[in-house]
Amino acid sequence: MESSDHLRADMIAALIEQGSISSPEVEAAFAAVPREKFAPEAALPAVYSARDVVVTKRDASGRATSSVSAPWLQAEMLESARLYRGAKVLEIGSGGYNAALIAEIVGDEGLVVTVDIDPFVTERARRFLAETGYPRVKVVLGDAEHAAEEHAPEGGFDAILVTVGVWDVPWGHLLAPRGRMVVPLRFSTVSRSFAFARAGGHFIGLDPTVCGFVAMQGAGAHPDQVAVLAEGAVKLTLEEGPALNVAALDQALTADRTELWTGVTVAHGESFDSMNLWIATADERLGMIWRDPARDCGLIEPAMRWYCPALIASDSFAYLAIRELPRADEAEERRWEFGVCGYGRAGAKLAQQLHDHVQLWDRDWREHPGPDFTLHPADVAVPVPPVGRIFRKRHTQLEMTWA
């Protein structure tokens, strides 16, 4: 088996090649911190896979409740935070490894406070940090909704990095005037990592990147609605809206369906994430559909394995599908066409509406760089943008605007 030093070097090379690491400071931190010391239960190749998460704890249902995040995402979040020597940093969601990377960058003159609600996590983090030479990191056991207050330095933290999936952002008042918050913020059931920079009384959201994290626990938890269908083969998630009738949705899944094809195509490797953002703008019923390939047996054929969009009503749904188009010869570019499949009493109507959203995105917004995001306090009156949407939360409201 290859040594940890060799695997670490390979991981760093991969992260540089794909653009996740772009600064010498972040590169040096990844080179210095032994990732395997923070995930001793995992094999070295898994620990040093550039794109894989290492799960360190699961609940009784098998759901991950703690993990060491994928290196590509950790690197990109560290780069977005723009850390520097002497910076004072708050991490929400512990584990130890990411805090060690931060400590390497900010140095002995900096401050790193890492908070987690789970004593299993904080005990491990404290122990692993001490064993690897980072005892100066302050590990705090508590609910991150409020536990960081007493540990904030005068003038605020220079950076706040959140390494759990959150629905809201209650930490803005702890940030220094020129600081940055890097937050995986969930809206329309999908988390996107933002770098939030203060601009007067609000924050500008930069670099939105689709990502996945263990969900927030405690006072800040805000679970989506979930409908598990066909004994776990298919799952629907919806953030808001009417209560889901799981029995009716389950029955709809095995009944007749509506199938429409949009004429909108995509090439291999071509990004279409702005489509999801447009549908989230246009329709409050946007959720996600998930397929377990080990159980599905061909019940559904979603366009994406992860984060496949669906319009979801209480007893009906429609999701985005895809099919490869025939080619005249092998030299012709391979292309795929988006379609829509609808199920249930209102499935045909939902399918037509999702079909129309895709076509409108293709016609008017596909070549657009994407929407702008602004995070406002919850008590501020924010006009609804001419083309956009406001996601209202407990402490904040996220404004998404297409201009």
From TrEMBL:
The keyword Transmembrane does not apply. Keywords: Cytoplasm, Methyltransferase, S-adenosyl-L-methionine, Transferase. Its main location: cytoplasm. The keyword Glycosyltransferase does not apply. It holds the Pfam family PCMT. One of its GO terms (biological process) is methylation. It is found in: Cytoplasm. It is an enzyme of class 2 (transferase). Its EC number is 2.1.1.77. One of its GO terms (cellular component) is cytoplasm. GO terms for molecular function: protein-L-isoaspartate (D-aspartate) O-methyltransferase activity. NCBIfam families: methyltran_FxLD. Belongs to the methyltransferase superfamily. L-isoaspartyl/D-aspartyl protein methyltransferase family. This is Protein-L-isoaspartate O-methyltransferase. It comes from Nonomuraea dietziae.
